[in-house]
Amino acid sequence: MKRNDFLSHVAWTGSGIAYALSGAGIFTGRALADAASATQFVQISDSHIGFHQPANPDVGATLKASVDAINAMPVQPKFVVHTGDITHLSTQQQFDDARAILSQLRAPLIALPGEHDVLGSDFKTYRTNFGIKDAEDGGWASWDDSGVHYIALINVFNFEKMGLMGNDQLTWLKKDLQSQYQQTPIVVFTHVPLYALYPQWGWTTQDGASALAMLSSFDHVTILNGHIHQIVTHVEGNIHFASATATAYPQPRPGTAPNPGPVTLPHDQLLHAIGYRTVRLDNGTAGIEQHPLG
Amino acid sequence: MKQLLLSLALALVTVHLHNDAYSPANVTIHTGDTVRFVNDDDDAHTVTSTNGWFDSKGLDTNGTWSHTFDKAGIFRYFCELHPFMKGTVTVTDVHA
What we know:
Chain A is of the alpha/beta class. Chain A has helices spanning 3-22, 30-37, 59-71, 92-102, 123-130, 167-178, 208-215, 267-273, and strands at 39-44, 80-82, 109-111, 141-145, 148-152, 186-189, 221-225, 232-236, 239-243, 275-282, 285-292. Chain A has one domain (3-7, 40-292): Metallo-dependent phosphatases (Purple Acid Phosphatase, chain A, domain 2). Classes of the chains: A alpha/beta, B mainly beta. The A-B interface holds A 50-55, 88-91, 115-116, 119-120, 159-162, 200-202, 258-262, 264 and B 19-21, 41-44, 46, 48, 50, 55, 57-58, 60-61, 78, 80-84.
């Protein structure tokens, strides 16, 4: 953990304890008022509820630890976004178990599907349990909050060509962006990376370039994804990409192993490699702070 | 009697899912034979026909799934979770 990350992590935790002790849910004070003036949300990803292997024998516990830490934030985020692979095998039991934990979040939850959530081309089970409110028929959505335009894209429908958005979604995206000002900060959520991060392992979106071409004309674009279980940042013009860690287990760095998949680490190192992150938007620029669980 | 001899001759072929690959990736069998897929990985996989004819659904670690191929042809499949995993079952007609 870098020193800055560690300090911010401790700061959150410390404030969280103070909050729990006060119990009133009302905070005053300059520092907290300043924090509240910026738009802040939290991203979690890849919880894989139902996974029971050495890389993380208790994925429920690490998701719960993330939820508890987020709930302890002295100023609650606007929302928590889960960028997919909530479950490991899309079973109703796994969705039930995930919901039992995620429903404890104090902040509103917005959950995208990963390919593990729609296995067997079953989009319905995800949608019944976690579908985004007021989403388009295809499941994708956009909304505005505090001057920021948020877009949740789904790129896990076509398994054989994963990731793929499809023409319907691209047509919708084009129309959605036409009503935005060039200066409006845009934040996009996806599961699979929208650019060719590492196509050899399927870490790409086949028609992502079409979406990126539409987004390239805006001044401030931040694209946050999951799927690869590790932090990778990338910049293309005004578009800033940042992949998130999982709450379940890490995967190898691209090309450093024969194939992707769960990496088994000693428990303390596992906790350092998983967790959640806060995203703070100031004048369109996203400041991301990682919060590992250990 | 002919029927019995035929059924005794039916084969069971095993394909392992290991290190994000099907092994062996290409098998050749006769009509009526069964292919058993065994997931040896820590990660989940699927055995999904490219044309929608069969689908193991999510196959967890140590999970097995079998499929009997009654018709001759070349059947391509892949893993929904790792689309770079590809395999083929070639089925030849037992009467041919």
